[in-house]
């Protein structure tokens, strides 16, 4: 398989105009707002505008969002199951934040997030030639912490009482993954 954004089980692709209803349902699912630090709903208008500008490259928009599709081995149709994001892209320091969402509970724990994150890391280091990726994850999100740690991200710090949650405050763990083959500038 030559496509760096595809494995035998998962494909990452750019959002299409017909994805607006899907993105609308995912972005407005209040059950997952805590992992994305979302406090207000998204309108279809804003999501349409986002999709219209998603053709801009990461150097211009400072972000990249890709749809995670599960490959159905019994048909030719792939099924959208989530999103992966590169955000807060910093071209000078050659780094970006990473986010992963598998939207529906019935699609979780099937390896889609692991495959999608592996593909995104490879794309980030080989194509975008980033030096590092990072993730900020609430300390109670053990599944996400394990996912990132299993793929080589290491804990580099804890922000104490960083996230306001029902009934109080929660710590946020910062994880980092350095490119194993960094580009070394010539002097």
Automatic annotation (TrEMBL):
Residues in N-acetyltransferase domain copies = 10-180
Per the record, the coiled-coil ranges are none
Signal peptide span = none
Superkingdom of source: Bacteria
Q: Which keywords has UniProt assigned to this entry? A: Transferase
Pfam families for the chain: Acetyltransf_3 (PF13302)
Question: What are this entry's molecular-function GO terms?
Answer: acyltransferase activity, transferring groups other than amino-acyl groups
What name does UniProt use for this protein? GNAT family N-acetyltransferase
Q: Which organism is it from?
A: Tenuifilum thalassicum
């Amino acid at each position: 398989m030559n496509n760096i954004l595809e494995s035998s089980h998962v494909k990452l692709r750019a959002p299409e105009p017909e994805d607006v209803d899907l993105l609308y349902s995912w972005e407005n699912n209040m059950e997952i707002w805590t992992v994305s630090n979302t406090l207000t709903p998204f309108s279809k208008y804003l999501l349409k505008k986002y999709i219209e500008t998603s053709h801009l490259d990461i150097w211009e928009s400072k972000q990249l969002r890709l749809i995670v599709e599960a490959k159905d081995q019994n048909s030719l149709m792939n099924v959208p199951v989530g999103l992966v994001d590169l955000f807060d892209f910093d071209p000078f320091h050659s780094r970006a934040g990473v986010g992963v969402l598998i939207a529906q509970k019935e699609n979780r724990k099937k390896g889609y997030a692991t495959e999608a994150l592996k593909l995104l890391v490879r794309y980030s280091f080989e194509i975008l030639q980033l030096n590092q990726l990072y993730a900020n994850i609430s300390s109670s999100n053990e599944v996400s912490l394990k996912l990132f740690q299993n793929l080589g991200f290491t804990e580099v710090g804890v922000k104490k009482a960083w996230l306001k949650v029902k009934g109080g405050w929660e710590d946020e763990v910062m994880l980092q993954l350095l490119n194993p083959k960094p580009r070394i500038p010539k002097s």
